[in-house]
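Propose amino acids for all 396 sites.
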């Protein structure tokens, strides 16, 4: 049976052809919405989406679905819990659209400084206002605070350095030689920041992270740019800060953003002159979409060739394993079963297991990770197995 791939968002034609050449059955329907997919998912093995939501009913209506690929970075549009409960892999394409998002963030920063969108809107209304639009401050020598220095934040930092800005960055991970000064204390950096650019994923920890307290730390007239996820900003607090401190904001994402690709949009942010909104286009350059599509094809190729899952995001991390048992054994039927039987009798659960074979196919090596240790007696029984060459049990 052919592997069936459903692509439910816009995807470059050349990469669709590449998938077809691999002998896969490809269903391409970029118009599908969240609620259309459940009725056609039944016989699909791989689902590819951009921002289209993959909800629990898509996952639960599927018979064969084994891999969901987010052709982009953020996976908050996919019901990860439902996928994990059904043992469906979810992968993404990290870093592939970082430059595009960084370019937009920089564009928004310059737009805020020069009020480029207002210039254009006035010109279209036949209004000439050089007086008003000559009040810009300039970006050189200003302080930028980047919240979230992953792939995108790093690209923003590089570009901001080229503008001669003082660049600060906050992240739980640090990269040696990063072109910025890392900070941890918002109280120290936010009051001196002229521009704040947010590049955080939507997680329970980042939800409404930019709240009243954070806005209260900003200096009057500061710029806040969010090209990440709307959930990160408390929009009520943002509107208050605009009123009280005349901060100015540029958003590529906002609460209540339409799911569709075109149509009407209504938002309380619409009539506020201190807010610029773009249409969630951070990743939408041809370069970025080609890079994302190329990576998606690579993920599918690796999966089809050997079952490997690249960029697997719903793999349990930090499972509390404490011991590793490594058994070298002759590669014969029943050897692993007999080792596992000893462990089962000891009522120990194996959390992770991998068996690999040495060249020549004579000897295998099985590594098992678990929370509890084996008793000396259990180890003795395993070692007495004539097909076991050696064992090593270590505390991790
Ligand atoms: C991402 O997470 O990669 C960006 O938000 C892009 O989303 P999009 O592919 O739906 O434009």
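Proposal:
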């Amino acid at each position: 049976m052919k592997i069936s791939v459903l692509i439910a968002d816009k995807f470059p034609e050349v990469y669709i052809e590449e998938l077809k050449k691999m002998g896969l059955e490809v269903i391409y329907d970029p118009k599908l919405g969240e609620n259309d997919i459940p009725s056609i998912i039944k016989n699909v093995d791989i689902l590819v989406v951009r921002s289209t939501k993959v909800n629990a009913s898509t996952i639960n209506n599927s018979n064969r679905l084994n891999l969901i690929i987010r052709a982009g970075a953020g996976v908050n549009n996919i019901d990860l819990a439902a996928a994990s409960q059904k043992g469906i892999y979810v992968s993404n394409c990290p870093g592939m659209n970082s430059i595009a998002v960084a370019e937009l963030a920089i564009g928004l920063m310059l737009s805020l400084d020069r009020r480029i969108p207002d210039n254009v809107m006035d010109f279209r209304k036949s209004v000439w206002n050089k007086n008003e639009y000559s009040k810009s401050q300039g970006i050189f020598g200003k302080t930028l605070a980047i919240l979230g220095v992953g792939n995108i934040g790093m690209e923003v930092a590089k570009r901001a350095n080229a503008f001669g800005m003082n660049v600060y960055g906050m992240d739980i991970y640090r990269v040696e030689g990063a072109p910025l000064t890392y900070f941890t204390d918002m109280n120290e950096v936010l009051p001196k920041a002229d521009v704040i650019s947010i590049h955080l994923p939507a997680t329970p920890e980042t939800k409404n992270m930019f709240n009243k307290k954070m806005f209260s730390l900003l200096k009057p007239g500061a710029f806040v740019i969010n090209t990440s996820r709307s959930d990160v900003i408390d929009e009520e607090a943002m509107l208050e800060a605009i009123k009280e401190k005349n901060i100015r904001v540029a958003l590529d994402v906002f609460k209540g953003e339409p799911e569709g690709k075109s149509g009407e949009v209504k938002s309380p942010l619409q009539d506020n002159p201190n807010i610029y909104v773009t249409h969630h286009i951070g990743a939408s350059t041809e370069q970025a979409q080609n890079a994302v599509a190329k990576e998606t094809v690579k993920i599918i190729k690796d999966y089809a060739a050997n079952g490997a899952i690249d960029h697997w995001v719903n793999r349990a991390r930090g499972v509390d394993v404490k011991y590793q048992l490594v058994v070298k054994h002759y590669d014969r039927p029943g050897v692993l079963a007999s080792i596992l039987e000893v462990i089962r009798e000891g009522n120990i659960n194996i959390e992770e297991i991998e068996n690999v074979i040495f060249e020549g196919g004579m000897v295998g090596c099985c590594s098992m990770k678990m929370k509890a240790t084996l008793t000396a007696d259990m180890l003795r029984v395993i070692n007495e197995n004539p097909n076991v060459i050696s064992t090593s049990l270590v505390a991790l």
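The longest strand covers residues 323-330. Residues 50-51, 72-74, 97, 280, 282-284 surround 3-phosphoglyceric acid (CB under 6 Å).
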